[in-house]
Amino acid sequence: xxxxxxxxxxxxxxxxxxxxxxxxxxxxxxxxxxxxxxxxxxxxxxxxxxxxxxxxxxxxxxxxxxxxxxxxxxxxxxxxxxxxxxxxxxxxxxxxxxxxxxxxxxxxxxxxxxxxxxxxxxxxxxxxxxxxxxxxxxxxxxxxxxxxxxxxxxxxxxxxxxxxxxxxxxxxxxxxxxxxxxxxxxxxxxxxxxxxxxxxxxxxxxxxxxxxxxxxxxxxxxxxxxxxxxxxxxxxxxxxxxxxxxxxxxxxxxxxxxxxxxxxxxxxxxxxxxxxxxxxxxxxxxxxxxxxxxxxxxxxxxxxxxxxxxxxxxxxxxxxxxxxxxxxxxxxxxxxxxxxxxxxxxxxxxxx
Length: 352
Ligand code: ADP
Ligand code: MG
Prior knowledge:
By secondary structure, the chain is of the alpha+beta class.
C-alpha cells in the first residue's frame, strides 16, 4: 500500500555501497595486480616489479620507477573518483591513451584491504611520502626515504569483506591468474622491464630492451620461444589502407595449449582481448591444429585511429573496428602466408 509514508526501500549506507562497488572492481588478487600495473604503465614506468605472497591474498606489492606522486597527489589519489587522466567525458570520446581513467582503483582497493603507498615524484630531491589506509580510512601520512617512483602494497585483501574472501580459490589458482595478468602486460610492453615473484621466488623477469622475441623467451621459456615464427607485414604489403602493420610471433601448429589464454592480441600498443582477431589467427592454421589445441600468439596490429575505437567499455578493454571483417581477413591472410612460407601448413586453408 503506497498511500502511507512507510516503505520497505532504504538507501544503502556509504560503507555498503563502497563494498559492493569494490566487488566489481576487485574480484580477486589478480584484479589488484592488473590495476596497479596499469597505473605504473600510465605513470610512464620503465621498470615494474610485482611481488606477491600466498597467491596475493597475504600481500601484493607493485613497485615502479614512474613519475611518482607528491604528498598532495597521493592524498587526493585515494579518494573516490579521483584521477589525473581525464577531466570530462569529451576526453574519453576523443580517445584517451591511458589504461586507467575511472579514478576508482586505489579508492576501492583501499576500502577492502590495508593499503600502503610510498611515492616520490621524479626528479624530487626531498623525502617521499608514505600513506597508509585501512579499510578505506587514512591511518597515517608521513615523510619517508624512498626512490623516485611508486610502490603500492596491499596486505590482507578482503580482510573486512569475509563474503569475498570465501570466494578466493587456492593459492596456486590465484597465483596463476596473477601470472596471466603480468605475462600479458610484459608481452604487450617489451620496452618495460617486468619482474614477477611469488613467495620469495622469481617467476620471470624481462629486460625491457624492446625485444619481443627476448620477452617471449623470458615469459614462456626456450621451448615455446624457439617454436615461434615472426610475422611482419607493413602497410605497403597489405592490400588496403585500414592496417598500418601486423607484427609479432605465432607458434608452429605443434606447440599449443588447451586454452586460448596464450593468444595475446594487441591493438595500437595495448593489450586488447579480441576474440575476432584470435579466431582469424586460428582459421589461418586450418586443420593443422589438433582439436581443442591453441597456439601461442603475440601479435600487434597497428590500425589508424579513425578505424578503431578502443574505449567503448568503461571496465573491460574492448575494441570496435570500423571494418572488422576486412581486418580479420587481412590478419588471417598474413598469418597464413607466413605459416605457408615456413611449410607449417600445407595449402591455403579452406575459406570459412
Ligand atoms: P585511474 O588510474 O583511473 O586514474 P586510480 O584510482 O587507479 O585511477 O589512480 C588514481 C590516480 O592516482 C591516478 O590518476 C594517478 O594520478 C595516481 N596514481 C596511481 N598509481 C600511480 C603510480 N603508480 N604512479 C603515479 N601515479 C599514480
Ligand atoms: Mg588506475
